[in-house]
Structure formats: C-alpha cells, structure tokens
Amino acid sequence: MAEHRSYYAIIPANIRYDTRLMPNAKLLYGEITALCNEKGYCWASNDYFADLYNVKKETISRWVSDLEKFGYIRRSIVFKEGTKQIINRYIFLNQEGIDEKINTPIDEKVKDNNTSINNTNNTNVHSVKKLRDDFEKLWKLYPRKKGKEAAFKHYKKAIKSGTSNKEIQEGILGYKKEIKSNQIKEEYIKHGSTWFSNRGWEDEYTYSNNNTKSISDEIAESQRRLSEAYEQ
C-alpha cells in the first residue's frame, strides 16, 4: 500500500463543480496539490496513485488526462536521452493562488535532469502571462465588461482548443457592429462572461452596411491598433 501523505489537499470550487470530471478525478487533484505543496511539483507515478486508491493504472491515466485536458494541470516528461523511454514525469498545477510554495520552480537538481523535457510542456510553463496579456487586449474591445475572470477562464479553454485571438477579435467586432446597427440597449448586451462562455465569435451577426464605416474597415482599424501586440 502506498504511503499516506499528511500534507493538506486543496480542491478549488471550479474543480469541485466541474461536471466533466469524475468525482475520483477531483479527489486525485487534491492528492496532487498535497504532493505539490511538499516540493512545488508532483513526482508520483500512476502506479503510486493506483496503489493509493486501489484502482487500475489505466484508470489513473484517464483521470490525469482529464485534469490536463480541462486545463487544471500540466505534465512535463523527462526522456532518456536519444530514446522515448520515460525517466520521470512531473505534474504542475495550473490553478493560480493555491499556495505560494506550489508555484515555485523545480529545484536545481530536477532542472539538471530536465535536458530532454518535452518542448510543448516547457512552452506551457511560460504561457500563462501571454494568455493574460492577449486576453486583456481583447477585453478592451468588448462592449460590456462584466464577468471578467469568468470570461478569462473560457478564453483560456478556447485558445487551448485551437481558437485564435484573431477569430475572437473579429467576433467581438461583429457583435459590436450588430449592437450599433440594431441600436441594442446596454442592458440587452451580453455580459463578457456570457459571450465568451457561449463562444460568441462563432455566431453570425446581422447589421446594416449603410453606416459610413463598414465592418471590414473596423476590423482593419482594430488590427492596426493591435498589430504590434499580436506580432510578438
């Protein structure tokens, strides 16, 4: 039987109430936070968790995959140099503000062993700031700024699923054009959280082209304003 850790575990509300996750996947997340609180990252293998919860290793693999798919954790894999043989796996939390120690970097010994770490996961480690910066630029364009943090959560999921900033930007501009053309009152404009949650950039917007400035003009103007940011 695996050794039981005495460190406290945390399961935030957004994970507790995420209906996409199995209940035991949420419990596993809590166990991962406990291990992260010890060293700043979780080093335990699927075999360790399978023994701990008395389930098959494949079951643990599904839970871990779901937690990663929905953006709650990220994994870094260390391969034996020149091969696909896995030497170590490290799990990091994507949830901000859980514990200061949880978000500390890997210690120097682990860094020395990470020469073969997966490049995609390395990129993910440094992507949070860019996601926030890009979102802030889009948020400035949105006409009714309500529910910012909820909107950011849905924005992150959209970007990770393959949506581009340009798609979202053009969707916002299309919605603004519809609001202006149809003279929609402010109280009927969707809150930002609602628009991002419903993937508003995928909607078709109706508006008159009789205005002096066309939607293509507005897109061009907006792209000129944001070109520097998105060229980085």
Outline the structure in words.
The protein is mostly helical. It has two domains: 13-125, Winged helix-like DNA-binding domain superfamily/Winged helix DNA-binding domain (Arc Repressor Mutant, subunit A, Orthogonal Bundle), CATH 1.10.10.10; 128-231, no CATH class. Helices cover 52% and strands 6% of the residues. It contains eleven helices and two strands. Strands 1-2 form a two-stranded antiparallel sheet. α3 packs across α4, α7 (128-141) packs across α8 (148-160) and α9 packs antiparallel against α11.
Brief sketch in words of this structure:
The protein is mainly α.
Compute the number of helices: 11
Instruction: List the uncertain runs.
Output: 96-126
Q: Which CATH top level class of the largest domain fits? A: Mainly Alpha
H/E series: HHHHEEHHHHHHH
